[in-house]
Design a protein that fits this description.
Elements: E1 14-16, E2 37-39, E3 47-48, E4 61-63, E5 71-72, E6 85-87, E7 109-111, E8 133-135, E9 143-144, E10 157-159, E11 167-168, E12 181-183, H1 195-207, E13 212-214, E14 216-220, E15 226-230, E16 247-250, E17 252-254, E18 262-265, E19 270-279, E20 282-291, H2 292-299, E21 314-319, E22 333-342, H3 355-366, E23 373-382, E24 385-395, H4 400-412, H5 415-419, E25 427-430, E26 434-435, E27 438-442, E28 445-449, E29 452-453, E30 457-462, E31 465-472, E32 498-499, H6 511-521, H7 530-541, H8 549-562, H9 571-585, H10 590-600, H11 602-616, E33 623-627, E34 631-637, E35 646-651, E36 660-664, E37 678-682, H12 692-695, E38 700-706, H13 710-715, E39 724-726, E40 730-734, E41 747-752, E42 761-767, E43 775-777, E44 781-787, E45 791-796, E46 801-807, H14 816-845, H15 847-850, H16 853-875, H17 883-912, H18 918-939, E47 946-949, E48 952-955, H19 957-988, H20 994-1023, H21 1029-1054, H22 1056-1087
Parallel strand pairs: 1-2, 2-4, 3-5, 4-6, 6-7, 7-8, 8-10, 9-11, 10-12, 12-13
Antiparallel strand pairs: 14-15, 16-18, 17-20, 19-20, 19-21, 22-24, 22-25, 23-24, 26-29, 27-28, 30-31, 31-32, 33-34, 34-38, 35-36, 35-37, 37-41, 38-40, 39-46, 40-46, 41-45, 42-43, 42-46, 44-45, 47-48
Helix pairs in contact: 6-8, 7-8, 7-9, 8-10, 8-11, 14-16, 14-21, 16-17, 17-18, 17-19, 17-20, 19-20, 20-21
Amino acid sequence: MKGEIFRNLSRLTSLYLGGNGMKIEAQIFQNLSGLTTLYLNDNNITYIQRDIFANLPNLEELYLNENNIDKIQVGTFDDLTRLRYLDLGGNDMKEIKTELFQNLPRLRTLYLNGNNIDKIQVGTFDNLFQLSSLYLNGNNIDKIQVGTFDNLPWLRYLNLSNNQIQNYEDGAFLFLPNINYIDLRNNKAKMCECHLPALVNYTKSEFGRTLEVQGECQTDSGNNQNKVIPIMEYSQCQNYSLFQRNLQCQTCSGMMCNNTNVSYCTGDEPVCQFKLSMDGIKLKFEKSCRTHRKCVDAMGGNVYKCNELTSGSTCVACCIGNLCNKKDFIGWTNSFVFHLISNSTLKKFNEYKSSVENVSRTMEHELSNLAGNFEVQYCGFEKNSEVFTITCIVLRTTTKDQIFTQVFEAFQTSQTLRDLGLQQRNMELINEMFCDEITTATSNGTFHWPMTRVGTSVTIPCHANVATRYCSSGKMEYSEMPTSHYVKSPKCSPFTGVWKEPDMSQCYNTEGITQQLENITSEDIDKENVEEISTIVRDISKKSVYFKAEDIDLAVDIQEKMLPLISNVSTNITLNNILPSINNMIDTPEEILVEAEQSDGTGSRMLDIIEAIPEEIPLEEQQLTVLHPNLGIGVIKVEKDTFNGAVFGISFGNKENEAKTMIYNNSDSYLQVNDNVDFISLPMSLSKHLKTEDQSAVSRITFFSLQDDKLYRVKQNSSAKANTTIISNIIAANVPNVQIMDLDQPVTISVGLTEKNPGNLRCVYWDETLGQEPHWSTKGCNTSTYVPAEKMICSCDHLTSFAVLMEIYAIPAHGNISHLLYKTSYIGCGISLACLLLTVIFYVCSKCLRKLMPSKILINMCISLAITNVIFLAGMRPYDSEKAACKAVAALLHFFILTSLMWTAVEALHIFLRMPSFMIKSSIAAWGLPAVIVAITLAINHTNNYIRIADVCWLSKVSFYVAFLAPVVAILLFNFIVIFLAICRRSSKKSDEQSEHEIKKMRVFGIFSVTILFVLSWVIAFIAEEEGVGVFHILFIIFNILLGMFIFIFYCIYKKDARDAISSYAMRANKSSNSGNKTDVGTAETRT
């Protein structure tokens, strides 16, 4: 049945809806204000909502029996204050909430029979002062606790038959002064006890009233056999007493009743009494010892609703058990504890000891107009704030939220508190207890647990998943007041919760990541749910460092689904969810990205998404920039008629500089950009290069920047150059759907360098020309300015992604083959060195040869070449931190290669032209000119022209061309010209000078061969392009060996004057030997 079916029937008194198999909805009875009887029995009602009977103020009888009700919301019957008869029998309820019947003061008959109730909570029937009949038969109740039926002064009939009751506690039925009948039949497991037989006899003797108890119980008859007898026939209770001797009760009187006086109650029938009365708007408590009869008589005078006392009214409750009246065991009142935290400085707080007392009493005074009792305690200084505890005792009908609001408003409007230094803006009222924030270090890492409300769990990120921790309550009883304002009790702090051990079991469970992503990919994504889904994906992406290849692929799939929606949804969704997700996904381990790229092109797709987002994002303002740790984007509106260029600047920040982005709509604005900011500047002429059909379609220019080239490395084919490294951020500019090429005014790109001692730098762009593997290319890009170790400014004639590449030229990457080549080169240099040293020794030792000018030149050239080989053997090794040694090796190698080549020039010049004092002048030139070149190279740029390349040191790119290649080419040209002239002169000489010409011919051949071999070994090895560096390394080894061997063979063996010197030396040695032999023979003959 649905609402308003009974509208306009306000005078209807009885309504029969039983036996219809129907269900009911809220507000169906809202217009039946005159209804007194309502039958809803024998239907199909399973759940009753709170407000369903809210508009039936005159209802007296309600029949809900024989339905399938398993839950009734608390508060359902709160408005039925006239209800006398309630039938809930024959349903499926398993428990009864203690608050369910608290506001039925006129209820006389209550049926709860035929349900599945297994336990009756103490306090369930409190405040049912007129209840006379209670039916609990046909349930699964197994135990009756003390207090279950207390405060039912008019109960006469109690049916507990057909349950599973095994026992009842002593005193369970003691405070039912008008009870006449208790039915306990068919509780087959119940053991015999003395309480009921003694209660029947006590009622008969003291009150002259008959109490009938029906039922059986089991008694032990011996031999482990039980005998079933009527309850009243149990006779083993001769020494049993209903009342406790020397009973201890708390005794006090007052508004807070804080004292802890304990009395021993004397007499034959001692009980503890709890008395609550109302004096104006304040509560008064009285706790004392009483006799059973007097306490029960006092209970008979209780008002209908003790939890809604009015001024002058009183309610009494009785109990047995030591100190049972210490608390409000009936539940007529609520006790709440709040904490006031203030970071204000109290006036004169440290000057007078009474300040604490004054502030606390002032707070109590401000609360004196509120209904209930209040006490304020100063707790001290905690967490940089003053802490006060406010304890409130109010009637049960007042909720915690209500009293919290009242206390808060009282403090907020108090001028007196302001005068004392408590500023309202600096006060915080807390109505919960908490576990204090804490940081813990475990084997899984360090975790910060935030302040958490007692009774709840907190979840924090933990590696691939989450960790959870429960905040449990302490054992303080907040209804107890402190005995002194100067003694801090545990309840004085709001941080009384106790942290349980954290649950870290899910920290590395990555299956949850995959499952979440799979669930999202199975959904359709549209404008309605894109914000929710993008938020979830953003949170998942925070764990990208734990992604598998499958996870990053699923995440990219989801981003691709959301990409077409960007232009039709709020910009905030893109800025706050989608872009942060992409930023986080870049943190995926590179080896995982490589795997995903090979299987699904994931890295390439991520770059496409990054490029497309600024093209799709709605642009409400003139420009937009966004910066995240791994990427930044920028967009600017353009109009072809007013376009003056554009500048996009970005800094990802570091310890010295903050992260920032900027866009200017003028190409000259790059002059305003700080040196620590990367930027790309587009020229004014950019629009001129657009085709006519493109000009009307272009409305924006987009930019993006990546902090490193990780995605490009992933995308780049494995065959790409392995000995190149990007040492700058990536910065890119695009005109959507338009390709910009061959600009007459170049694009200017300035990027900071991440390598402090780089070498061989080039400005590059990302080339994705069809038919080629994607790679970094220099085409159309040039270096404009280079600030060593800081930044490089490039000029390019097109738009794409730009960076600075450090190329490690002529030094092969390490590996098995490279290692073998290095070892072989050492052997080759050793052979060459040995040949050179033999040549020097031969010529130095030969008196006739060393006096000759060509021999002197040869000796100097061999010494220079030998030292070059020694430097290579000893100095060409990895240098990590020894920069000075590294630069020294590079400078010496540079010097001796040039001197070696200079001595070939000296030899060539000597062949062609004889000069006086030739050797002195040539030595100055051959040794001095390279020294000048090396000195200048060292002086310029503070020795930074000699740099570390890969594992060894050599000249930087520019210095290599200027200080090495240029002199080498000049010397070689000089050599070849001089040799050519020498040959021409030889051919014009007369025949009588042929002998001398033959000698010159040999010298020309020798120096020409040495020059060629030197160039093929040392010079070409250092200018080889990296694609063929392995081949040139082999050639270096071969030609370096040939160079040394050629010099030794040609100048020591092949040349005639060298052979003559060897023959002369041999003849002298032989002659000396023969002369020695003859002398020995003559001496022998004389002796003979």
